[in-house]
Amino acid sequence: MRVISERDLKKLKAATRLSVDGAGGSEEFQKATRVRQGQLSKYGLAGDEHMETFVPIDVAVEADLEAGSPIITEMMAKLQGYRLVRDEAEEPEAGLTHRDISALNAEVGDVSRLAIEALDDGKIDAREKRDLMRELADLKAQIAVIEGKLGDGA
Question: How far apart are CA 51 and CA 2, in angstroms?
């Protein structure tokens, strides 16, 4: 029996789709990695025929780098009970960047995905509520980053 649930596998697939989309889509991203467009698309598909096909770790890192946000990496950390924190030694960019917008999109995607999953059975249980509140907090934090950068005259 696998340690990771089917639900968590679908979360990895969704994170992969978001990251590849943030990297310009599979057609554009294939130019920056070793995998071709068709295979990149399969990594994000959650249908039965593709549930055993996952993005290799090096391609996941490249997708996240191209997307400007650790979307896949963050999901892997979350599934293990961890949270990513930016290295303090790395100086954040002063003005609004594409990376900021990619991070915002990733947070919106996380909230949307969790809300849809929570509503699948018609009710939101305590764990789902807690997870949604955590994701909403992450979304608010990213909005605050963008507001701060816009307030600085980006």
Answer: 13
